[in-house]
Amino acid sequence: MYQICSTIGLLQLSYQAYNFIDYVNRYYFTTPIPLKDQFPQKYALITGGTQGLGYGYAEELARRGYNIILASRSEDQIQKTITDQNQII
């Protein structure tokens, strides 16, 4: 019985150690893939790009050289976002 419990414990410990090493390797030692290499398109369509996460994505993709197509329910918000983005870039 002791042998079985020891084996199960060792397997569980090995599994946890593997997950920890994988986490550290994935988030601290890998280099990010440039978006232009992975997605060579020139345009990015962003829905909800006038506020929140969509706005942040629009800002970052514009910095990385993409042409942005914004989709929103309000034309006023789109005009404001375009003005803001042009000032940033």
Any overview of this molecule?
- Pfam families: adh_short.
- By secondary structure, this protein is mostly helical.
- Helices cover 64% and strands 11% of the residues.
- It contains 4 helices and 2 strands.
- The protein has helices spanning 2-28, 35-38, 52-63, 75-88, and strands at residues 43-47, 67-71.
- Strands 1-2 form a two-stranded parallel ribbon.
- The termini are far apart.
- The mean pLDDT is 86.
Report a brief summary of the structure.
The chain is mostly helical and 89 residues long. The protein is built from four helices and two strands; from the N terminus they run ααβαβα.
Distance between the amino and carboxyl termini: 67 Å
| Mean pLDDT across all amino acids | 86
Q: Which residue ranges are poorly predicted, with pLDDT under 50 across at least 5 consecutive positions? A: none
- Our Rg estimate from Cα atoms comes to 23 Å
Largest sheet, in brief, is: 2 strands, parallel
- Class by helix and strand content? mainly alpha
* Number of β-strand runs: 2
User: Can you tell me the overall shape?
Assistant: elongated
Q: Give me the oligomer status.
A: single chain
Give the total of domains: 2
Number of helices: 4
> What fraction of residues sit in β-strands?
5-15%
Order of helices and strands: HHEHEH
Helix proportion range: 55-70%
Keywords: Oxidoreductase
InterPro entries: NAD(P)-bd_dom_sf, SDR_fam, VLCFA-Steroid_DH
GO molecular function: estradiol 17-beta-dehydrogenase [NAD(P)+] activity
Pfam families: adh_short (PF00106)
